[in-house]
Write a structure and sequence with these properties.
Blueprint lengths: L1 H14 L13 H4 L7 H12 L5 H11 L4 H6 L4 H12 L5 H13 L3 H9 L7 H15 L2 H10 L7 H27 L1
């Protein structure tokens, strides 16, 4: 959606020293182009969002978590942002507990690459607006931990009911990702 683009460009403007500025005009495009080897993930993200018109947040989240050290982009892909995270962390430390807060803490742990803590927080999201999304993220956390059997059980337990197209797409992608991980594990076990 357009808000994701807005957040992305605001993030780029804040973190990139040579982001185009209006003063003095734009430098030539070669000066703006980052070295390809350092920014393949970002280029892939932009390709997915623009050229193909296809956006699968769970797939991009997996790539952001495994191929970059970014923290804000994974939060945005999970539907939250750093300002909400600061509030959620302070509320959680003050002793507040509910499903939405557990989701925010799970998202925070995922962005910090603490998948064990993320799985525990996301398991506590049993009602509310983020139930299906939390279950999908929990499955991803299990997969990133290498706990494929738990990931499979978590994915099988997701009751999609009347899923949104995004939830159904994420579920299908996680199923394919788990199948690939099982094949890779079998290949690695057979090669030893």
């Amino acid at each position: 959606s357009w808000t994701l683009w807005l957040r992305y460009f605001a993030f780029q403007r804040a973190t990139t020293p040579n982001f185009p500025r209006r003063r003095g005009g734009y430098p030539n495009s070669a000066a703006l182009r980052p070295p390809r080897e350092k920014h393949d993930f970002v280029n892939g993200l932009l390709d997915d969002l623009t050229a193909w018109g296809y956006f699968d947040p769970i797939q991009l989240l997996d790539a952001a978590l495994t191929h970059s050290s970014l923290h804000t982009l994974p939060l945005l892909l999970m539907g939250t942002e750093p300002a909400i995270q600061r509030i959620a962390v302070s509320l959680y430390q003050a002793g507040a507990r509910d499903a939405d807060l557990e989701f925010e803490m799970g998202a925070h742990a995922m962005s910090q690459r603490n998948y064990t803590e993320a799985e525990q927080h996301l398991a506590r999201v049993t009602d509310g607006a983020h139930t299906v999304q939390a279950a999908l993220l929990r499955t991803l956390a299990f997969e990133l931990l290498g706990k494929l059997d738990e990931a499979q059980r978590s994915l099988d337990a997701i009751a999609l009911g009347q899923p949104s197209s995004g939830d159904a797409s994420a579920w299908r992608w996680l199923r394919k990702s788990l199948d690939r991980a099982y094949r890779q594990a079998a290949k690695n076990a057979g090669g030893k």
